[in-house]
Write a structure and sequence with these properties.
The chain is mainly β. The chain is built from five helices and 21 strands. The strands form five sheets. It has a five-stranded mixed sheet with strand order 17-21-20-19-18, with no helix packed on it. Strands 1-2-3-4 form a four-stranded antiparallel sheet, with no helix packed on it. A four-stranded antiparallel sheet has the order 5-6-7-8, with no helix packed on it. Strand 9 and strand 10 form a beta hairpin. It starts with a helix and ends with a strand.
Length: 375
């Protein structure tokens, strides 16, 4: 009996070990992830929040009919960051022709955060209006009393109209208002053109109507203040803009980061008082090398560092593009990810069938004091 009991216990232990090993590998994969019903998790460019012991994963819900394929924003829930149950659409496109989110619009990179003061769940996303391609470049906001919605669409528009960023050199603005009329600046990508972009030529172009807002994320700092981080100026420059106390608008305080550097897909986290931001270059749906930035203050100055990825596939971010960096607060659940406290969530885009795009989660580790992504 003793031998049988020992064999039984050994079998149980091995089963438990291999189940943990399988669970630890699943989040690293860049392929199809199934929910508890066996369907692929159709939640892209999104984020995760934890609320009252449950994890909520939000993301774009796409059909497989090309870029103009937005159905809305979906939500999945889990108790262990491994098994996800679909809760359906929490924000849907509408057939109302008077709505900014009319069917045929493009909804990208939704991020949901909880406002502890108002007790509301606030969603920000990049919105392109129906029939206008990527011309509108709007930030949109929706709100809900419940993490699984329904979210009520509030409004969309350009950001910080008429506001100057922190540290902007005001004496330069007189000629910047008219730069686009200069013949030598009609051709993009020349050294002269690039210099004027860095100075703020495109920023001044959009000053009165508000700044463009495309790829984006939302970050809530330790003090509860929230920041909207987005690609602006035709994706040439990042903006970090502080939100109002209710997270439903912008308070006018913002900075331009890496002006002229062509960054998109911003993701951000804070470790021991230092801010770290991982972005991608602008190569459409094709993957490229990640960029790493750091700062001691969220309003900068920000310093760019080398690509944080290591190993085979590092020059293409292992085939993915960042969506969000999630902090795993539960120490027990960190074991799934080798003990890492932060997860780099990425999408492996399939432009011809966006709904089937893959998911890639990579633990963030620190080496020589800097975050590193390894596979």
């Amino acid at each position: 009996m003793t031998n049988y009991r020992q064999i039984y216990l050994l079998t149980v232990c091995l089963s438990f070990f291999f189940s943990l090993s399988a669970a630890a590998q699943k989040p690293m994969e860049g392929g199809q992830w199934k929910d508890t019903s066996g369907k692929h998790i159709n939640a892209h460019g999104g984020n995760i929040i934890q609320y009252r012991g449950t994890y909520y994963w939000y993301g774009e819900t796409r059909s497989n009919k090309g870029p103009v394929s937005s159905l809305g924003v979906s939500c999945y829930t889990s108790k262990n960051l491994r098994d996800w149950t679909s809760r359906g659409l929490v924000l849907s496109v509408t057939d109302d022709a008077n709505s900014d989110i009319q069917r045929g619009c493009i909804i990208e990179r939704p991020k949901v955060v909880f406002n502890a003061r108002t007790r509301k769940f606030v969603m920000w996303f990049h919105l392109e209006l129906k029939g206008r391609g990527y011309e509108a470049a709007r930030a949109a906001v929706a709100v809900s009393d419940n993490p699984i919605g329904p979210f009520r669409f509030v409004r969309s528009g350009r950001v910080n109209a008429g506001c100057y960023p922190i540290g902007f050199c005001l004496p330069d603005t007189t000629d910047l208002r008219h730069q686009l009329l200069f013949p030598e600046l009609q051709t993009w990508w020349t050294p002269e053109w690039r210099k004027q972009i860095e100075r703020g030529m495109f920023f001044m172009r959009d000053l009165q109507g508000g700044q463009m807002a495309r790829d984006q994320t939302v970050f809530v700092d330790d003090d509860g203040k929230a920041y909207h981080i987005f690609s602006s100026e035709d994706n040439m420059t990042l903006n970090i803009a502080q939100l109002t106390d209710d997270y439903l608008g912008h308070n006018g305080s913002f900075v331009r980061v890496a002006a002229g550097g062509q960054n998109e897909a911003p993701t951000i986290f804070k470790q021991d008082g230092t801010y770290w931001m991982i972005t991608s270059g602008c190569t459409g749906w094709a993957p490229n090398a990640a960029r790493l930035f750091t700062a001691k203050n969220i309003f900068g100055p920000w310093t760019q560092l080398p690509n944080p990825c290591r190993g085979e596939g590092a020059e293409t971010t292992f085939g993915g593009q960042g969506a969000y960096i999630y902090k795993v607060s539960d120490a027990k659940l960190r074991r799934q990810f080798g003990g890492a406290e932060y997860l780099f969530m990425a999408d492996v885009w399939k432009p011809k069938e966006l709904g089937n795009s893959g998911h890639l989660w990579i633990p963030i580790r620190f080496e020589d004091g800097k975050p590193v992504l390894r596979r």
